[in-house]
Amino acid sequence: MFEGARGTAVIAVSDLARARSFYEEVLGITPVEIQEEAQSVMYTLGGTPLLVYLSGFAGTAKNTVFAIETNDLDADMAELSVKGVEFQDYDFPGLRTTNGVAELPGERSAWFADSEGNILALNQRT
Question: Do 24 and 34 form a contact (C-beta atoms < 8 A)?
Answer without folding.
Answer: no
